[in-house]
Design goal:
Layout: H1 3-16, H2 20-41, H3 43-67
Helix pairs in contact: 2-3
């Protein structure tokens, strides 16, 4: 797989794996928690929280990518999304 095809597949999965409604709720929850942490502990704690969550998100992403064999099989909560023919 070329680097260009790799990025096309990742972009396609990122844009199509979650529904629009799920994304809205997800970001409302994230911003609500961020506001609560900022009000409770301040900006430094909020920065550390986002750093921690970024590391966790990358870890989960690579775990799912590995277990789904580069998004070609269903595993856990991920359901296979048919990829366009030029991206398989």
């Amino acid at each position: 797989m070329t680097l260009k095809a790799f990025f096309k597949r990742e972009k396609y999965v990122a844009l199509h794996a979650q529904s629009f409604r799920f994304r809205i709720v997800k970001y409302l929850v994230i911003f609500g928690i961020a506001y609560a942490v900022y009000a409770w502990k301040g900006l430094e704690s909020l920065g550390l929280l986002f750093l921690f969550l970024t590391v966790v998100a990358l870890g989960i992403h690579f775990l799912f990518r590995w277990k789904t064999q580069a998004w070609t099989k269903s595993w856990g909560p991920y359901t296979y999304i048919p990829l366009p023919p030029d991206e398989q």
